[in-house]
């Protein structure tokens, strides 16, 4: 028996608790870093440089995560298209048909 497209695994969604934990963790880390830079015993230009470096690091991390997610999703789409083509070929193939 052939398995149809309805048998493909459903994409896992993160829970609300996991999402909340991720947002809270990010917020705490960013706030702690900002407070640390603000209270640092250094010149204003050193604190400014560190603040810009942290913002650059955060935006780079978001961009990297998006690129990795996009590549993974593209691979899943190609796999589903290939699976659909194979299922179509198998459904149309009659092994008892004379050539």
Order of helices and strands: HH
Through-space gap between termini: 24 Å
**How large, in whole angstroms, is the Cα Rg?**
25 Å
The helix-and-strand class reads mainly alpha
Using the alpha-carbon principal axes, give the shape: elongated
- Give the biggest sheet: none
- The count of β-strands is 0
Question: Helical content, roughly?
Answer: over 70%
Mean pLDDT: 83
Q: Roughly what fraction of the amino acids lie in strands? A: under 5%
Low-confidence stretches: 1-5
Explain this structure to me?
With 99 residues, the protein is an all-alpha fold. The protein is built from two helices and no strands. The protein has helices at residues 16-39, 44-92. The longest helix has 49 residues, at 44-92. The relative contact order is 0.10. Keywords: Membrane, Transmembrane, Transmembrane helix. The chain crosses the membrane at residues 21-38, 44-65. Pfam families: YiaAB. Residues 18-70 form the YiaAB two helix domain. InterPro entries: YiaA-like, YiaAB.
SSE blueprint:
Blueprint: H1 16-39, H2 44-92
Helix pairs in contact: 1-2
Keywords:
single chain; 99 residues; mainly alpha; elongated; disordered N terminus; membrane; transmembrane helix
């Amino acid at each position: 028996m052939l398995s149809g497209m309805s048998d493909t695994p459903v994409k896992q969604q993160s829970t609300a608790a996991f999402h909340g934990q991720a947002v809270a963790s990010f917020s705490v880390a960013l706030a702690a870093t900002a407070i640390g830079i603000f209270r640092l015993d250094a010149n204003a230009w050193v604190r400014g440089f560190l603040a810009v470096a942290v913002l650059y690091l955060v935006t780079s991390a978001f961009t990297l995560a998006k690129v990795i997610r996009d590549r993974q999703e593209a691979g899943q789409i190609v796999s589903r298209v290939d699976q659909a083509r194979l299922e179509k070929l198998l459904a149309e193939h009659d092994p008892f048909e004379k050539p």
